[in-house]
Design brief:
42% of the residues lie in helices and 25% in strands. By secondary structure, it is α+β, with helices and mostly antiparallel strands.
């Protein structure tokens, strides 16, 4: 899941070198913390949070297929 979030985020931002995804937790519950450059926050969140919601939906669909629960947090 970490790689999926990283690929999506790097495609959206101007500074792909500053994209970091940290995976926390084990077993069926996992939290992914996405960190991007402050200037790229708007691109990752989108208008009214639409892009952030879309990222979370894609990760949720992929994690359901693996019988896991993955939450995505976005940090600036």
């Amino acid at each position: 899941m970490r790689e999926l979030v990283e690929v999506i985020a790097k495609a959206l931002v101007d500074n792909p070198d500053e994209v970091k995804v940290v995976e926390k937790g084990e077993g069926k519950n996992t939290r992914l913390e996405l960190t991007v450059a402050p200037s790229d926050m708007g691109k990752v969140i989108g208008k009214q949070g639409r892009i952030a919601k879309a990222i979370r939906n894609v990760v949720k669909a992929a994690s359901t297929k693996e019988n896991r629960r993955v939450d995505v947090d976005i940090n600036g």
